[in-house]
Amino acid sequence: MNVTEKLIETLGNLQRALELQHAELRAALTQTTRSNRLRGARPAPAPGASGGRALLSSGAGRLVGWSLTATGGPVHVTLTDAREAGAGEPVAVIDVPEGGAGAALWLGPGGVSFGDALRVDVAGTGALQGVFWLGAVD
Q1: In Å, how far from its chain's centre is CA 38?
Q2: pLDDT tens string 25-60
């Protein structure tokens, strides 16, 4: 085997190794729920809803929409790019009226990016119910 043939063989092996590594990295970086790859938005329950919490996301990501209702009075919702209350920059402010009207908005797959975390603070006389949609990892 001459030098050229060895070089071609080595490059072929390198290409196969890189393709395998790429497939392994892609599998490791995809976001899953119950072993199913998420291809759309991931729902995050609103605080006050079953399983909801003030910190919707503890890392960077995208807010792509929400579907919210209020019972017992209107609710004012502030979403901030922060982990702690009163810190960070506002991402969205939502006024949710009491009753069936609610508030729903789809921002599209690009959504609004946040760099640190996504926190939701709720004020008002009502109870908030619903979900926020966060963009899945691409």
Answers
A1: 11
A2: 655 555 555 566 556 678 889 987 655 688 888 888
DSSP, collapsed to helix, strand or coil, labels residue 28 as helix
Taking a C-beta distance cutoff of 8 angstroms, is the pair 132, 65 a contact? yes
- List, for residues 66-83, the tens digit of each pLDDT value: 999 998 899 999 999 998
User: What does the block give as tokens for 27?
Assistant: 């599998």
DSSP state string for 33-52: ETTEE--SEEEEEPTTSTT-
Q: To which residue do tokens 């009207």 refer? A: 101
**Average per-residue pLDDT for the chain:** 83
Q: Confirm if 124 and 48 have CB atoms less than 8 A apart.
A: no
Ranges of each domain in the chain: 3-30, 36-135
